[in-house]
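idk why but the lab printer keeps eating my pages so im just putting this in chat instead. protein + S-adenosylmethionine:
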Amino acid sequence: MHFDIFTLFPGMFDGPFDDSIIKRARESGIISIELHNIRDYAEGKHSVTDDYPYGGGGGMVMKPEPIFRAVESVPGLAEGRSEASSLPGNAASERPAIILLSPQGRPFDQSVALELADHSRLALVCGRYEGVDERVRRYLCTDEISIGDFVLSGGEIAAMVIVDAVTRLLPGALGSEHGADQDSHATGLLEHPHYTRPPDFRGWHVPDVLLSGHHGNVDRWRRQQSLLRTWQRRPDLLDTAWLTEDDLTFLEGLEREMPVG
Ligand code: SAM
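predcted complex ->
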């Protein structure tokens, strides 16, 4: 998987991409990341990348020319783009996905991360200030993604979130083929609690079943804890999660023991 990231602040990526899982994934060739400084594609003595908004109002808007030039400088990236391709939600098409980070985009979640992990390359365009000129969204980008209903100062942190969430889904990135399978949201449920040594920490004990060595019981406990957590914290997820007959019986038991309201 190759990531092209277009930003006015490439230095922001130094720490997060140089440690831990992302670092290892880069070193082992599972991913590669190229940072493109949009300012390098601005013209004039002052390399201006933003300008006042037409119509007035506060803030500045990122100019289209440097962003188009930056993206178009990467071979094979912006070929075949069109207005029709700028509609959100078509990232799985054959064209390389050029994703605009934006609080107005489609919500990023685990299913979108899985969808993006199917691509061989992704381009991420980071906005700043009041955002980018609308023509970048309309005529250059193929997708628009938000990492949540809040406003960040720039798209850089959103890009890091996407790179991280997508990378851990790639085979080998976690050091084990099934590492991410049981994570929260991967199964449609929240994951069960985890414990490690010591078995007794300040009088707080690890549940006996986890010390029993009985794999069947451990699996059943984990599944039920996962269901319990999801039922308590994110009952909305149960509407779409894939549930077995045993799961449904367990949830019915919870409803009986602890009726809501
Ligand atoms: N004026 C814009 C609006 O109200 O929609 C917000 C601009 S924001 C201050 C600057 C940039 O941060 C955006 O262009 C976008 O790239 C990024 N950004 C902010 N919030 C984001 C979010 N929730 N998800 C992804 N990117 C975000």
